[in-house]
Design brief:
Blueprint lengths: L1 E4 L16 H18 L21 H22 L5 H24 L13 H18 L2 H21 L16 H10 L19 H18 L6 H22 L12 H24 L7 H7 L2 H17 L1 E3 L5 E3 H10 L6 H25 L2 E4 L1
Antiparallel strand pairs: 1-4, 2-3
Organism: Spirosoma oryzae
InterPro entries: HGSNAT_cat (IPR012429)
GO molecular function: acyltransferase activity
Length: about 375
């Protein structure tokens, strides 16, 4: 990681949109804050339904958070690499180094605290971000937007055919069931059950084959980034068309659901379109309010999360594990973790509904991180990965 600073006293209105899209930082900040919220409830046994993933087919607001982030990765690529100068070989080296860093950070989270090579989960959220960033960045450097659009269509159609038409070895027919679909077979064949997501046991929600359509989510973001960087059309026209395309893409995903069910765990093609379309609508709204209409009220907290998104995601996954390792005596004399003790003694008591207590625990965690990130933001510190 590298730490960089911007010039002291930098305000939102000082940053040109050609250099850093403020609406994108704010949208990224909202997304990563939502990630922290759903990943850190006070009590995993008591959650409101919208804060849980869909059991299998279908979707909840929580299912949209990760694809929103990958969509934002795609948009960011067009702005970051679009203004880079120098030899392509040097750019490729930077892309590979950053991708490797992200992948290793994710692997470290999976290793910690046991560091057991025999059972460590290999895929993960940061690992998928690393792969999507790597592939999409290389495509940005070597293909045109038109070629990227064709590639996106090929990925969506190809994944649909693979999952619905190719017989699964050992099963004998194509299917979309949790443990017998083609993606699950590939995960347990290549990764083996020892190295996949433990609750799923024999497949991984960030597995090998489903990374292909996840790249499609990144490509949707890249195409959106190209559109937002257009200088030959007005800002109002850019927003209007982004709303239109976002609505059509969302509708296409909902229609495809009848043939290829919306499923976050499989990252189905219909899910790519649904989440991508909704992400377009969200970004269009942020772009119109923040960059076009110059609306600043309430944006700074989101920007504070957005400029250090990977850092806060990594640390918000690491610190609860550390707190879970430290044991203290509970109210009944039993040994409990510091994390559990703080929740039971400081947060849960005022609430009669355990779901409200669990939500309060998650919100408290987000608030604590906001204080940290706000301090970094006021000091103009951005930790680059």
């Amino acid at each position: 990681m590298e730490t960089s600073t911007t010039r002291p006293g930098l305000s939102l209105t000082d940053v040109p949109t050609s250099s850093r899209l403020l609406s994108l930082d704010a949208f990224r900040g909202l997304t990563v804050a939502a990630m922290i919220l759903v990943n850190n409830p006070g009590d995993w046994g008591h959650l409101y339904a919208p804060l849980e993933h869909a059991h299998w087919n279908g979707w909840t607001p929580t299912d949209l958070i990760f694809p929103f982030f990958l969509f934002i990765v795609g948009v960011s690529i067009t702005f970051a690499l679009g203004r880079q100068t120098g030899e392509q070989k040097a750019l490729v080296g930077k892309i590979i180094r950053r991708s490797a860093t992200l992948f290793l950070l994710g692997l470290f989270l999976n290793f910690f605290p046991k560091f057991n090579l025999l059972t460590v989960r290999i895929p993960g959220v940061l690992q998928r971000i690393a792969l999507v960033y790597l592939i999409c960045s290389l495509l940005f450097l070597n293909t045109t937007p038109r070629q990227q659009l064709y590639l996106l269509l090929a990925v969506l159609a190809g994944y649909w055919l693979l999952m619905t038409q190719v017989p699964v070895p050992g099963v004998g027919y194509a299917n979309l069931e949790p443990e017998t679909n083609l993606a699950a077979w590939l995960d347990r064949t290549v990764l083996t059950p020892a190295h996949v997501y433990k609750p799923a046991k024999v497949w991984d929600p960030e597995g090998i084959l489903s990374t292909l359509p996840a790249v499609g989510t990144g490509l949707l973001g890249m195409l959106t980034g190209y559109w937002l960087r257009r200088t030959d059309v007005s800002a109002a026209e850019r927003v209007a068309w982004l709303f239109v395309v976002g609505c059509l893409t969302t509708l296409a995903g909902l229609c495809w659901d009848g043939f290829f069910p919306i499923n976050k765990a499989l990252w189905t093609s219909s899910f790519v379109l649904l989440a991508g379309g909704l992400a377009m609508l969200g970004l269009a709204l942020f772009y119109w309010l923040v960059d076009v209409k110059q609306y600043r009220r309430g944006v700074l907290p989101l920007v504070a999360f957005g400029v250090n998104a990977i850092t806060v995601f990594f640390l918000s996954g690491l610190i609860p594990r550390i707190l879970g390792m430290i044991k203290v005596a509970g109210a009944d004399g039993s040994e409990v973790s510091v994390q559990s003790y703080l929740y039971r003694q400081c947060i849960a008591p005022p609430f009669s509904d355990p779901r409200n207590a669990s939500l309060a625990g998650a919100l408290t965690f987000v608030l604590i991180w906001f204080v940290v990130l706000w301090w970094l933001y006021r000091k103009n510190v951005i930790i680059k990965v």
